[in-house]
Amino acid sequence: MSGSIFRRKSRRIRLGEVEVGGGAPILVQSMTKTDTRDVEATLGQLKRLELAGCEVVRVAVPDEDALEGFAACLRESKVPVVADIHFSHSLAVRCIELGAHCVRINPGNIGGKQRLLEVVRAASDAGCAIRIGVNSGSLEKRLWAKYGGPKAEALAESALYWSAFLEDAGFFNFKVSIKSSDVVENYRSHLIFAQKSEAPLHVGITEAGFGEYGVVKSSVGIGSLLLNGIGDTIRVSLTGDPVREVEVGFAILKCLGLREAGPEIISCPTCGRRKIDVEALAQRVYEATKSLKRGIKIAVMGCEVNGPGEAREAHCGIAGGRTHSLIFKRGVVIKKVPNHEAVEALLEVIKDLEVDDAHQKASFPDKV
Fold it and tell me: Is residue 247 located within the same domain as residue 181?
C-alpha cells in the first residue's frame, strides 16, 4: 500500500527472490548482533528476527572463522541474507561463492578500485546484489578535506562516485546506503543523491542510540525521507535487541500508510472527561488483536461523548464510560455494553468487518 506519498523513481534490483526498488514494497531490515562464529546463537537470533517479520537480515563476517556461521545462516534463513564486509574484498568474494544474496561493502575501505572490481565480477557471475555503504568512517580523505568533514555534500558525492563506478563496470544490481548519525546531514545527503541517481536506497540513521531517544531519532530521520518518497529498504539502528528494530521499522511504515502490518491502535491521550482507564483498555485491545495480519484501525477512546466522532477515521472502536462502553463501527455507534464485555464486543465487530471486506472483494475486486 502506498497511501498518498509519492515515491521516488528507482531502479528495481533483486536480493535472491526478493525485489527491491522500482515501486516494490519498502522492506524492513535488521542485523544479527551475535558473534557470527557462535553459530547456535546467531541462528537463534536469525529465527527471532524472522518471526518478528524481518524481511532482510544482515550478518557480520569479520574474518574467515565467521564463514561457517554465515553459511549456516544462508542454509536456514527464509529471507535474503546480506554479508556485512569491511576491509577484506576476499571475504566478500568468499561470501558470494557461498551464496550470499547481497554483500555490503564500503568502497572507501575495501582496498581500492581493482579489489572492488573483483567483488563486482564475482557478484555479477553469481547474481548477487551489492550494497554500497557510505558513512563518515569510510569517507575518502579527499572528500573529508574538501568539505571539512562528513557533510551532506561529501557523503552524497562519494555515493554518486561509487554508483557511477559500478554502472560504468556494467553492474546495476546494487543499492546505496548513506548513513550519518546527524539527522539533518543525513536528510540533506539523501536529497542530493536522489536528484541525481535512480539507484535504490537503503535508509536509516546510523548509531541512533538506545531507548526512547533512539526510537525518536530513527523515526524522524527515516520518516522525513520516506515522506519525500526516498527509501526502498529501511533499518532502525538501535542499541539492544534487533527485534525491537523490526517492530519500530514496521511502525514507521504503518504510520505513513506505506505498509499494512497488522492493526493500528488509535487511542486518546486522555483528559478530565475520561471515565475509564484508557491505557489499560488499549493494552487489552492490543493483546487481543496483535495476531491479526490485516491493516485495520481500531480506536480506544476515553469519552463516550466525543469518542466516536474524534475517531471517525477508524474502522471500529470503543468509547469507554464509567460502567458501560459504546462500540462503534465506521463512526457509527452500534451498541452499548458493560465495560467488562467491551473487548469481546469489539472483536465481534472486527469479525464482521472481515466478512464485509471479503464480500466487497468478491463483488468489487478492482476497488479494494
Answer: yes
CATH of the domain at 315: 3.30.413.10
**3-state SS assignment for residue 255:** helix
Domain boundary residue, one of 214, 235, 255: 255
∠ Cα 18 29 256 (to 5°): 95
Mean pLDDT of 15-21: 95
HSE-up of residue 290 (Cα within 13 Å, Cβ side): 9
Q: What is the pLDDT of residues 254-307, one digit of tens each?
A: 889 898 767 888 888 877 777 788 888 888 888 888 777 777 888 888 876 666
Q: Are the CB atoms for 353 and 363 separated by under 8 Å?
A: no
Buried b (16+ CB within 10 A) or exposed e, 49-69: bbebbbbbbbbbbeeeebbeb
CA distances from 62 to 34, 92, 112 (A): 12, 10, 19
Q: Output 361 or 87, whichever has higher pLDDT.
A: 87
Assess whether pLDDT exceeds 50 at residue 362: no
pLDDT score at 302: 83
Look up the pTM and report it: 0.81
Q: Is 128 helix (H, G, I), strand (E, B) or coil?
A: coil
Residue 4 domain-assigned (yes or no): no
CA 256 to each of CA 219, 223, 338: distance values in angstroms, whole numbers, following the listed order: 11, 8, 35
> In one letter, which amino acid is 13?
I
Q: Which domain holds residue 105?
A: 13-255
Q: Which of 350, 291, 278 is nearest to 315 (CA)?
A: 350
Residues 112 and 204 in one domain: yes
